[in-house]
Structure formats: C-alpha cells, structure tokens
Amino acid sequence: MARLFAGTSGWAYPSWKPDFYPEKLAQKNFLKHYATQLNTVEVNFSFRQLIKETTIEKWIAETPADFRLGIKAHQVITHIKRLKKTEDFLPRFLATLEPVARAGKMGPILFQLPPNMKADAEVLGEFLKIVPRGVPAAFEFRHETWFSDEIFNSLKTHNRALCVAETEERTTPDVVTADFAYYRYRKPEYTPAERKAMVGRIREHLEQGRDVYAYFKHEETPQGAIYAVEVLKEISG
C-alpha cells in the first residue's frame, strides 16, 4: 500500500520552539521528538560532507522503524563535477549510506543541480546509467531548459523521480517519471486553497500506488514542520 512520507529539510532549529519543539527540549533530543510527529526528513548536511557512520547510527537509533531518511547528494557530484566523471566519488558517497539501507530507512537521494547548469541530455543519460538500480533517486533541475520530454523520458527509463520544487520564483512541471513522487514545497506560506490542491495531488499518487515524499521549507520558523504534520494527519485521517 502506497504511503505518504512528509517532513522538512532538516530538524536542528531551536527557533521551532515552542510551536513545534517543547520549550525545554535539549537540542540533542530534537530528532527523537521530530520523529514522533513526522515520518521522514531530508538531510541537507550530506551536501557539504560525507556523513560519519557514528552519526548515521545515531539517527537510525533515534527514529522508528518506518521512518525514512532522504539524503541530498554531495556537492562534488552535482556542483563540482556537475554529473560528469563521478564514477569514483559516487560509490564512495553511497557507501556512507549503507547503514541506512540496511536499517530499511533509506528514502530517495536528491540530486539537486545548480541553477546555472543548463540541460544536457547526454550527461544526464550517462550519469543515470551509473546510479545503482536499487538506490531510489530524485533530480531537482533549477534551470528551465531541463523541462522537456527528452529529459522526462530519460528519467522514466531509469525510474528516477522528477523533483517537483515549488518556490516563489518557479515551479517545476508536475510530471510523473518514477514509481514514487518527490515534492519540495518551498513557499514560506500556503493558502488553504493551495493546501487543499496539494493534498488532492498527493491522494492521486497514493491511489495510483506511488509513495510520496514531501518536504517543506525549514529554517527560520516551524511553519513548514506544522504544514507537514497537518498534511500527514489529513491524508491518514
């Protein structure tokens, strides 16, 4: 049965007190509390450094069995090498995530490309060939040249999700390219009508047998986390 995994991109924000975290909760216990409210988190920490095994084991221990860790791919892959000649680094990066996979808590890896990287179907095609088939992956394209049938079909061939990113500046076309869906809701606020449409779209995916990963804006205020809790409750209710 398809499931909704909803959360935010990160959890270590003291500014979420007292509306999401209890006022007296120590920061070291944030993830444990977060995981009582939400069932996934998108880890951005992995963009700048390879995660230590001790850190990952701690995350695994502090989250329930059905929790999923979505992981942002390291900047060496997406921003420095820009998907080219990653044959050496990609396996090294994936090896750090093996404990998550063994624990059954692996969410998709998000390959977020730089805003100034224009579409290159050949580069993408070659990269897709080297991402192991068993690793769920989503791609966030931030240059509009990527939004074409050629790119979407390439993702479909390899069962890789198009990350539908919604910001104040631009929204990715909502095209299904994999057996799961991946959303990044980045607006600071959503109207009741926008939230109703969001829930409706999520329900469509679930009815068609696709898991949905939905990550809300994080950082300054707890509003994204509160939205995620609301959406989870509405879908499960």
How would you concisely characterize the structure shown here?
With 237 residues, the protein is an alpha/beta fold. The protein has helices at 30-37, 53-61, 75-80, 89-95, 98-102, 121-130, 149-157, 192-207, 223-236, and strands at 4-8, 40-43, 68-72, 106-112, 137-140, 161-166, 180-185, 211-216.
Q: Can you characterise this structure?
A:
The chain is of the alpha/beta class and 237 residues long. It has one domain: Protein of unknown function UPF0759 (TIM Barrel), CATH 3.20.20.410. It is 35% helix and 18% strand. It contains nine helices and eight strands. It has helices at residues 30-37, 53-61, 75-80, 89-95, 98-102, 121-130, 149-157, 192-207, 223-236, and strands at 4-8, 40-43, 68-72, 106-112, 137-140, 161-166, 180-185, 211-216. An eight-stranded parallel β-sheet has the order 1-8-7-6-5-4-3-2. Helix 6 (121-130) packs parallel to helix 7 (149-157). The model has no long low-confidence stretch (mean pLDDT 96).
